[in-house]
Design goal:
Strand content: 35-45%
Largest sheet: 6 strands, antiparallel
Distance between the termini: 27 Å
Structural class: alpha+beta
Shape: globular
Number of strands: 6
Number of domains: 1
Number of helices: 3
Helix content: 25-40%
Amino acid sequence: MSNTLRVGALFMQAGTFIPRSLGVETEECSPGWKWITNLDGDSFDRNVRNAGWSFFFLAAKIQVIVWGHWTDKLVGKAIKRVLARARPAQFNCLEVTELSARRFCGIPYVHLSAHSRHIQEGAVLPGIAERKRANAATAWAMG
């Protein structure tokens, strides 16, 4: 995954309803989440708006650090951690905004930052209680 994972990569909760016209291709990446492999954040946003839907960007940054040298396994671990942190907010998408290899006192680590995104048909972002109900209904319909 990490060989092709870049800034702008999008992850979407499994079962999220989106317009078919978007032509989204996904790959399983973590329980309950899919990686959108054929579109980055900007192109997905443009396509969503052209379809008459909304794709919200939330300002709060989610950051994780995973100690060790950059490997596919380590980047995958960072993705799983950031997706776990995103889940409580009940937004249905996540966009990677920074992915880098760094060092602290000579010790290597991977730093990943992301922002929550939310796709929906309406133009008004619902509160957390409404998002929880919608996500629960989607999970029940998928099960």
